Every structure is written in C-alpha cells, then in structure tokens.
Amino acid sequence: MQVKGETSVNKLILLFVFDKMESSLSERTLVDMCTSSNDWLNYMDCTVLIHKLKKDGFICEIPGGDDPLFSLTTEGREALASYYINIPKSVREEISRYIKQYGYKFRMRQECKADYFQNKDGTYTVFLKILAAVQPMLELKFVVPDKKTANMIYKKWEDKASELYSVVYETLVD
After folding, report:
1. How far apart are CA 153 and CA 168, in angstroms?
2. pLDDT truncated to tens, each residue of the chain (174 aa)?
3. What is the largest CA-CA distance in the chain?
C-alpha cells in the first residue's frame, strides 16, 4: 500500500498516524507501525521522514528516557488539516481501522517497560515501569526467587500494567 516516490504524501501519512494515535510516539513505535506491521511506508523512508518532519517543525521531540517521544505540533496539525485529502482515501481508511483495532497495544508497548536480572544470591530483580511523556508514572521493583517467576512477571506486565496501576492508586488514595 506504499505510495512510492511521493515524499509529501508519505510525510502526511506519518502526520495522519500521529493524529489518529492521539499521543506522543517513539521512533521505534512509528517505524514498527508504519513498516513492519503494515506496508504504509518502507523502512528507510520512514526513518528519514521522521527526522525531516522534526526539522521542518511538524513534530517535536520530547526528551526523556531511553526512547525519546515525538509529538505532533500545531504546524503539523495545520499542515495535515490542509493537505490530508492528498493521502489516498483507501490509505486513510486502512490507517484508521488499524489504529482503532491495535493502537492501544502500541501505546501500552511504548508506555510499559519491564526488565529483570539475576542477583548474586540467585534471586532475580524485576523492574516494572509505566512511562508518561515526561517522567515515569509508576516504578516497581520486585525481588523474586527464580528466573521462571521473573520471566512470568516480565511477560504479563504489558497486559496488566493499567489494571495494577488502578488498584494501587485507588488503594492509596481511598
């Protein structure tokens, strides 16, 4: 579904993805969504265009963490509003459908980070984070007895993070 040789249309596709996701996105998330998971853009075009959009002031970088986030600027919204009709309707519809179905998973993958390592005594430490645009919303650190438990927590974190955050928040605020 790539629009070959149309740099301006490909820039608009990226701006349209930002608009539909309604959140800041990392370069990794954008590239995965637009190239690996779909065929909206090719990999090289996507990575180059992200930085061109930043240079042109259509997106801005929000520093922080290992993976900086990019956000749509007012200029980017205005450009998209003026020229979105140049994106083929079939591509707009495909992007809208895809983001409606899978956008939440991309946001969770980007916002929920987990890692674990073995301690000197043979136990494992598991780090869990929910990241916001500027700073972590929640950070947890667990020491667990074995690698199997650490890996189980690691794998479940993305799916359970929002539920756990709600429970912790409600428990502490009430």
Report:
1. 17
2. 444 455 889 999 999 999 999 888 889 889 999 998 898 999 999 999 999 999 999 999 887 666 778 999 999 999 999 998 999 999 999 999 999 998 888 887 778 888 999 999 999 999 998 877 666 788 999 999 999 999 999 999 988 888 898 898 889 887
3. 61
Which whole-number Å values give the CA distances from 145 to 7, 118, 142, in the listed order?
53, 10, 10
Closest by CA position to 12, among listed 69, 59, 67, 70: 59
- Cβ(36)–Cβ(102) under 8 Å? no
Architecture (CATH level 2) of domain 7-110: Orthogonal Bundle (1.10)
Please say whether the beta carbons of 153 and 128 come within 8 A: yes
**In the chain, where the domains are located:** 7-110, 111-173
What does pTM read for this prediction?
0.72
Distinct helix (H) and strand (E) counts, the chain? 6, 6
Six token digits for residue 56: 């042109």
The β-bridge relationship of strands 124-131 and 112-118 is antiparallel
Straight-line distance from the first to the last Cα atom of the chain, in angstroms, rounded to the nearest whole number = 51
In this structure, what token pair is assigned to residue 139?
A: 């950070």
DSSP, collapsed to helix, strand or coil, labels residue 40 as: coil
Containing 150, the helix (H) or strand (E) segment is helix 147-173
Residue 114 is which amino acid? A
